[in-house]
Design a protein that fits this description.
Blueprint: E1 2-3, E2 17-18, E3 24-27, E4 33-34, E5 36-42, E6 61-64, E7 67-78, E8 84-89, E9 94-96, E10 99-101, H1 103-110, E11 116-126, E12 130-139, H2 147-160, E13 169-172, H3 185-192, E14 203-205
Parallel strand pairs: 12-13
Antiparallel strand pairs: 1-2, 3-4, 3-5, 5-7, 6-7, 7-8, 9-10, 11-12, 13-14
């Protein structure tokens, strides 16, 4: 639905602008159209690349501003030039100290570290901030799951992320995946919020190491 058409300036990290055939908007948590929120696609007339429906399930359709929209469950923001910036899936985005956190952005920073093969960021319960970003990390071969490795990754993230976005906890694991190879964040979130959960041997908290 988005891209950089020939002749259009490219903004590093942006998805670009809506392509021909798609009328796109952003719907906030209050159901109002704005510059931040869930990506929705106008349905009247239907867009060129949207399926007719789901088998045995209703289409995720909503109304706003007198128009019908298809809900994508993806969250983005739009700048003053009409460029869209991906934030994450609706279920994955969370708040820490009332700041909205995009796991996608944090994971993108993490995988730039030489020791990180894959990463998934989820909210971890915290008494002060209610939730803090925690990274579940699969390491590349040759890197041990030690406090020294965690310290190096924490320091790496501090140089690249705003203070409110910093990774506060790291756990080295084999990431759970679907049959198609996608990381199962829902499983990681459920495990993190399990009552009585104990700190894992390969889990490290910033400030404690």
């Amino acid at each position: 639905m988005f891209g950089n058409s020939p002749g259009q300036d490219v903004k590093l990290g942006s998805m670009g602008r809506p392509l021909p055939g798609y009328r796109v908007a952003l719907l906030d948590a209050d159901g109002k159209l704005g510059d931040d929120g869930e990506i929705v696609v106008e349905l009247d007339p239907p867009p060129v690349g949207l399926m007719a429906g789901y088998l045995d399930n209703p289409m995720p359709v909503t109304q706003a501003g007198g128009r019908r929209y298809y809900r994508t469950s993806d969250v983005a923001s739009r700048d003053g030039d009409g460029y869209y910036w991906y934030i994450g899936r609706v279920d994955d985005v969370f708040k820490s100290s009332d700041y909205r956190i995009s796991p996608f952005e944090l994971e993108s920073a993490l995988i730039e570290h030489e020791a990180v093969a894959e990463a998934a960021v989820v909210p971890s319960p915290d008494a002060l901030r209610l939730a803090v970003p925690k990274a579940f990390i699969a390491l590349r071969a040759g890197y041990p799951p030690t406090a020294e490795t965690a310290r190096a990754i924490f320091a790496f993230c501090r140089e690249r992320l705003a203070p409110y976005m910093r990774i506060r906890r790291i756990e080295f694991v084999e990431l759970p995946k679907t049959i198609s190879g996608k990381i199962r964040r829902v499983q990681l979130r459920a495990a993190e919020h399990r009552p009585g959960r104990a700190k894992a041997p390969t889990e490290f908290w910033e400030g404690e190491i």
